[in-house]
Design a protein that fits this description.
The structure is a homodimer of 292-residue chains.
Chain A: E1 2-8, H1 12-23, E2 27-33, H2 37-45, E3 51-52, H3 56-59, E4 65-68, H4 75-82, E5 91-94, H5 100-110, E6 117-118, E7 120-122, E8 143-146, H6 154-166, E9 170-173, H7 176-203, H8 207-212, H9 216-222, H10 229-238, H11 240-262, H12 266-284
Parallel strand pairs in A: 1-2, 1-4, 2-3, 4-5, 5-6, 8-9
Antiparallel strand pairs in A: 7-8
């Protein structure tokens, strides 16, 4: 149970956690904070939070659990504000898509990595954003990755795990480094490819005509290029090393495919496409993806 | 109006054309041909075709319109069979995803590019295949590209255009070369990227774990990697030159993005992502994509 939950950054992610915990009867009071009072008032009107303060230092006072759900580029400033204002025994976690950078920002903000911080990442979201898009079922059956540091207190990790489980999520723990590698491969790299492809086509002279002849496959493939540019700029910079590694590995693999096309090497093409289809079909199997 | 339509290759594409023209009352009789009698009998049982012959030379006899919808790698053999067997005045078109290779195959099969051939490509399909998956609305509001050659008779093009319009499609004409460039960019290249990405991840040691943490964006992005490996091997080889050109341009553009990540160049990342989002959102606009 959480007595007072403070959510810094009340959008789709923070708002959905608030709704889920409220619905589960897992929290007594929810305090919100963000830079814009208008958004916070909307969250109060929607019943997502009970009250708010635009100053995160004031909002976290008396909270036993704090969830920081702001863009990666804003993490350090939030940590600088809330660090000295936390109540004794308070646990802090976050929702950032890259974890090493969040730990670095915390270290830079406070001069140490404290035992009350549990880096986290809910693998969930929709193409929409903002508190009005939030809903209590967002995390049901979804994965949440926690990446406790060497300093993190096991009791703090247990509390954050219990919170996410109350919201309906499946919780796994792994190292910060492994999280950043896995997410670079399955999320950050695909976003780079989609952004690069669409921008590349958009710059071609016949761009309007080109998009006219794009079919459903292109639509699916490039959907993620509609994602928020600022959020993704921040993710790229925050997870730079793992992303560069994933990009370089992909370039090497794409080069194998290119050379096979160039050489008319039908066996290599058939092998790569067959392996890819098998992996994708297995991923698609209802038994393996019941959370969708 | 078509008196007798012959469809060589009665799957999703050919079967849906048959159903659409039947429903529109645009055809008197439909004869099917393919290598497997079992598939053809199924098409008869479903009411998609009236009768069949596994020998395409016999199936095309007496037809005034022939639609060849076989894998690109099988085109040449079909042309060799049907070329000498066509009735005077018959018009032949096809559904191949690359057009220069089809024209080359025809030239190789018959020693010339005849005036009765109209290369074509319906930009439609689903992830399913086979005649059982065919349905009359597949082409409604979809684009069909015709790429008449210098030899193609204008009356032949007019007949093929009228057929596709009767099936509910929007018909455009362009050169063979331009078709192949546009499709390389919007279809063939994205398929290469999806196949390469999934195969690359599948080979990583922790593959099962990696796919476990993939979210909805990855699912959409890689859906096309479930496509038929043999069909895509054929497309890659058939549209080799345009595909290599598209791949090389993409590699250059991806390198710009990579370098921006490497240099922490937030302005370049923001600019590229913003341009990509703008182009993708415009493409997604209901007014521009009413056919979806």
């Amino acid at each position: 149970m959480i007595r007072r939950l403070c959510i810094v950054g009340v959008g789709l992610i923070g708002g959905s956690l608030a709704r889920a915990l409220r619905e589960a009867g897992y929290v007594d009071e929810i305090v919100g904070s963000s830079r814009r009072a208008g958004h916070l008032q909307e969250a109060v009107d929607l019943g997502v939070i009970d009250r708010y303060d635009t100053d995160p230092a004031k909002a976290v006072a008396g909270a036993d659990m704090v969830f920081v759900s702001v863009p990666l580029g804003a993490m350090r400033a939030v940590f600088e504000r809330i660090g000295p204002a936390l109540s004794p025994g308070a646990v802090v976690t976050d929702g950032g898509s890259a974890k090493a950078s969040v730990v670095r920002d915390l270290d830079a903000a406070l001069g140490r990595v404290p035992d009350w911080f549990v880096p986290g990442h809910p693998i969930a979201g929709t193409e929409r954003s903002g508190v009005a898009a939030s809903f209590p079922e967002l995390y049901r059956g979804r994965r949440v990755i926690l990446t406790p540091t060497a300093q993190t207190a096991p009791e703090a990790t247990a509390k954050v795990r219990a919170m996410w489980e109350a919201a309906g999520a499946q919780v796994n723990t792994m190292s910060v480094e492994h999280h950043d590698e896995v997410l670079a491969a399955t999320s950050h790299l695909p976003h780079m490819l989609a952004f690069a492809l669409v921008e590349s086509l958009a710059r071609m002279a016949e761009q309007r005509e080109i998009f006219e002849y794009a079919a459903g496959g292109f639509r699916d493939f490039t959907r993620i290029a509609s994602s928020d540019p600022t959020m993704w700029r921040d993710i790229c910079l925050a997870n730079r090393d793992a992303l560069l590694h994933a990009l370089d590995r992909f370039e090497t693999d794409l080069r194998v495919l290119r050379d096979a096309v160039d050489r008319h090497d039908d066996e290599t093409l058939q092998r790569i496409f067959t392996e890819a289809k098998r992996a994708r079909d297995a991923f698609n199997d209802p038994a393996e993806s019941s959370q969708d």
